[in-house]
Specification:
Chain A is mainly alpha-helical and 182 residues long. Chain A is 77% helix and 0% strand. Chain B is built from 7 helices and no strands. Classes of the chains: A mainly alpha (182), B mainly alpha (155).
Chain lengths: 182, 155
Amino acid sequence: MEDHEILLKFQDPASRSLAFNQLVRKYQSKVYWHVRKMVIDHADADDLTQDVFVKVWKHLENFRQDAALFTWIYRIATNECLNFLGSKRRKFLLPLTDVGAELAAKIQADPAIAGDEIELKLQQAILRLPDKQRLVFNLRYYDEMPYEQMAEVTGTSVGALKASYHHAVKKVEDYVTRNTDD
Amino acid sequence: MKPSFKLDAHPRRSHPPLSSPPAGYFDRLPSQIMARLPQAEARDTAAGGGWLGFLSPALRTGLASVAVLGGFAASFYMSGTPQLVPATASTASLDAVPRTELVGYLLTSGAHVESADLAVLTAAHPGIAKDFLHASEAELNEVLDSQPSEELTYL
């Protein structure tokens, strides 16, 4: 079902639930992986994905359609992730690097990455990036999202996003180079 | 010299090599999300709640608390006063009536004085019987013993 059909049916109270169910089924995987890349842990990603869609439900009536529906959903998901990581840091009074180290420990324990040293170092390097820079890196590197769309999701200018991604790539390459065996 | 790592030369993935979510996760997720949604009726009520809709949640909670406490206070005062007023009011109003008028009323109206009336009277004036009842305790017991004591009296 196309986005405009979903939105049209959502306006009708009789078909609202059905339309929203379609919306969840259409975007749940993308939202989940967007969140999972940021928080790494499946249980956290599960909670946040549900929170994102509950917020979408609450505010979809006020969605002005000046952006694509998925861009809008991505923005909600992004804010949820950044709030989650920020509150985690504040709750445990952790500096930036410690949350990165905690996430790196989780990814190291993940069986999907076992045995691949370069990949492990790459993930550790990505997780050491500040949250917002890691978000930019994920959107560009994994999702291959155009900068213009990234600007809508993050509310940042295209120029700033390009600079942020460039610096992130440099940091990642330096870390992997320094921390891998010959 | 150690070769430098280049991201462009590394095989690109669609997402990091994290373990997949549990089997059937995306089949269950929509129903879990739908179960968490606030009820449409509740949302409609909140949206169309008239002037209450313009108040902040904290203010609405405070207002509800004041209303409940006010209700308790009102019910306390309204239920407490009627128990006190009738006894004093009736006694005071009877005291204001001259005794001759009371006797005249009782003789002409055909009203019957019952035990309950006497009980109320002695409760209001504990020493009222001393004026006309000159009997010793032994005499009272003798009269009471001579009364028939049917079981029905105690039922």
